[in-house]
Each structure stands twice: as structure tokens, then as C-alpha cells.
Task: structure prediction
Amino acid sequence: MALIETRGLSKIYTLGKNRQVVALNNVTIGIEEGEIFGILGPNGSGKTTCLKLLLGIIFPTEGEIEIMGENQYSVTAKKNIGFLPENPYYYDYLTGPEILMFYGKLFDIPVSVISSRTEELLHLVGLYDARNLALKHYSKGMLERIGLAASLINDPKILILDEPTTGLDPIGCKETRDLLIKLNQAGKTILLSSHFLSEVERVCTRIAIFHRGYLLSSGTLDGLMKDYQAENLEDLFVKTIEKFDTQEKQEVA
Amino acid sequence: MKKAWIIALNTFHESLRKKTFYILLVVALVVIGASRFFSFLAAEDELKMIKDVSFSTIEFFGALIAIFTALAAVSGEIEKRTIYPLLSKPITRSNFIIGKLMGQSLIILLNVILMSIFFIVLLFIKKSPPDIETFKTIFLIFIELVLIGSITLAVATFATDAFNLIFSFFLYIVGHLISYGKSLLERVENVVLKGLGEMLYTVIPNYENFNIKDKVVVGVQVSWQYIGQTFIYGIIYIAIAVLIGIYFFNKREV
Ligand SMILES: Nc1ncnc2c1ncn2[C@@H]1O[C@H](COP(=O)(O)OP(=O)(O)OP(=O)(O)O)[C@@H](O)[C@H]1O
Ligand SMILES: [Mg+2]
Result:
């Protein structure tokens, strides 16, 4: 059984009376234990919408979600999830350790455990020296880093990361990639969204390509490249999307 | 409940960082302090004046703090997007609303305590130490303020800040005048109008119920039974406000 499963997941945003945006259209995917699953797609293709639905932050228009056998609102399921939102923002008057303490307590983790994990995590994301700095003085990349640390405070089985390397410098990107692989080897299942094809190419065991709310294709990188006769991920990405767009044009015509 | 409490402490912490709290507190203290300069009055009248002004100030500035903290509690989290990491934690949406209510009530409590200390010091200076009636008055004001805050919190789960602000102040005024409405209502003959009026009278919290200062200032004792009844009256309205807040927040996309 998949660790995370969506069945016919759709999301329509309603803006005013007659304006609707179909952000996600009938998406069915399963993420198996031990995977690093990458969601790829152009801007506005529905990646963030999909991840927000998985966390119960927004509600599906149609379809179902199952996480470790429970629905997305289940408090028990959430105990096993670490989430890094897109462009994360936290209480900016707190310091890194204070943020981790607050979230750690919400997971019912003993204070002593939170403290020792905090030390470890701050070293891991390279924010140990900034431990006394309030988050309002953080740079964009530092916020992303503390977000990653915060998503690990409960030592989660599942990590859901919305563009984890946006705002990071090249070294930060590489460090994050290495970290994700290490976490995966330690048994964590990772679901991430990204724009960076090379990043996805290097870390993900399986990918899904989203476009205008549709799931165009999903599978292992090698398998998909064969199917589309693509040379690399970039080629695959472009071919998948072009194929969809021409099909759609033909349908209209 | 433990999780709500963790959120409450975080909310309390956050409100303490806001300038609004300190500005309102300082202005309130200045007003209370100024009340002692009515020394042209006879000593007895002056004391009444100090009490009257102080109780009114604690209530009015407390209401401002209650409304502004409750406004920030929900929409602040949504605007700054701190709500995303929060809701992805193993908490329920009712934990969030109850936590916010407890947090803002702590802020209100701190504010009432600070203003009361100042007021009581003033009473000691005037050689008239506070009696139990003074504390009864302050207690009911506190309950009223928690109620005011809980209504603003509930409305914040579905309405915009601008609407909420206007609504909360409107309700503050109406809730204080509603007793007059009741006496007017008795003279209404039309059954439909009367029924409608009765309904409004039941739905709208009567904030004047919490106001016993007019009696206390002139030395009339208020029974414990009245305090108890009014306390329960307040708790019922607070509970209803919280339920409304939870209901709408459960449907809210952030
Ligand atoms: N709250 C909202 N209200 C209305 N429309 C929305 C809302 N959030 C997203 N959308 C729309 O839904 C679509 C998908 O947006 P989403 O944020 O999921 O894309 P994305 O793939 O994460 O894009 P990006 O790569 O830019 O982060 C877009 O067309 C967007 O305009
Ligand atoms: Mg996005």
C-alpha cells in the first residue's frame, strides 16, 4: 500500500461569481515508502495546490487523499509528516531555537529531546551560528534553511517539501540535495516539488509532471525518457508539455 | 487542550511584542492618573470620580485591546503565512481557535491586572483601600472583555478585518445600549416587531449586565449571586462565540 495516495483529486478555486480556476484536475498518484518523489511543472501548474491539499490546509473540490491509511485531516497522520511550505515564513520575533521549540511541543516531544534535536538540526542546516538571531533578521535562504530544520523536528517518516531549494545559494542547494539523499537513506519518504530539473534528476527516484492542473505523466526517470524518446529530463519535460498542448489544440480544432 | 495552551502562550508572547498593547496601556494609565486631579471636588466626590473614571477606563481600553488582539490572532497568521506550518502540525482547527482565545484572554488579563494595580495604588494614596466590591467590579469587566474578544475572534474566521472592526465596535455600542432597547420594546404593540426585538435582545450580548460600577461607586453592595449569574451568562456567550469560530474556521481555506 502506498504511503500517500490521492484518488481523482481536483481543486477548483472560485474567484468571485463566475470566475473559476481549475488548479488540479483529477489527479491520482501514489507515493510508496522509501521514495523520493518529485513533482515537476511550470509555474501555476498546481504543485503547491496539490501539496496544500495533502496537508489539509485547503480542501479538495473532488477526490480523496489517504496518508498512512488515514485522511489528510488526521492528527495521527500529521505526527509523521514534516512540511516545508513554499517561501516559508515563521514568527519573526522568535529565534531559530524558539521556533523549533514551539513546533516540537506541538508534536508532544519532550523538551529535552527538542533541545538536543535543535542543536543537531541547526548544525545540519548551517544556522548554528545564527541561533540567537530573531527570524526577522534572516535572509530568504536562511528562512528556507530554518524551514527545513523545522520540518525535521519530529523526525518524520514523510517529508513534504515545496521547492526546498528556492532562495538557496549553489552551495546551499548542493547541501540540501545531499541532505535529502541522506535522509532518504535513513528511511524517510520524501515528496518534493521543484522547478530545478537538474535537482530532480539527481535526487528523485520517481517523478510526476504537472501541467495546467493535469498530471501528464509519472514514473521513473528512465522509464519516462524511454516512453517519450527523450535524451534527458529537460527534453522529457518539454516533450511532455508540448505533446499535451498540441493534443489540446487538435481537440479544439 | 495541551496543544491549545501551547498556541495560547505563543499568541500571548506575540501580542506582548506589539506596540498597540503598550500604547493603549500607557494612555489608559494616564487617564486613570488624571482622574485624581479633580481635587476641586469634595473628598468624597473625588473618590467617586476616581473610581468611576478608573472602572470606565479599564473597560474601554480593555475592549480596545481585546478587539485588536483578536483581529491579529487569526488574520495575522493568515496574512503572514505562519498558518501553513502551524496547520500542518498535529493540531486540530479547534485547538487553534481555543488556543487563540486563551492567548488573547491572557493578554486581556495582564492588561486588566496592570491597570487595576495602578488604580488600587491610587486608592491607597487617597487613603481608601479597595474593598471586595471593587474586585467584583473588575472581575465582571474582565469577563466582559473576554466575551468581546471572543466575538471578534469568531467573526475573524469568516469576515475581513475591516468588516470585523466596524462590527465589533458597533456591537460594543449596541451591547451597552440594549437595556434601553428593552424598555422601549415593552411599549411596542406590533407582535412581529416585538418578536423580532425580543430575538435581537436575546442574541445580542447585554454588556451592561457586566457593569456594576454605578452601584459600587455609590457604595451599594452587589450580591455574589448576581456575580455568579452574570459570570455564567458571559461564559455561555463566550462558548457560543467559540463554537461559531470553530465552525467557520473548519471550513476556512487559508
Ligand atoms: N488561493 C487561490 N485562489 C485562486 N487561485 C489560486 C489560488 N492559489 C492558486 N491559485 C491558482 O491555481 C493555479 C495553480 O497554482 P499553484 O500555486 O498550485 O501552482 P504551482 O505549480 O505551485 O506554481 P509555482 O511553480 O509558481 O509555485 C494557478 O493558476 C493559480 O493562479
Ligand atoms: Mg508553487
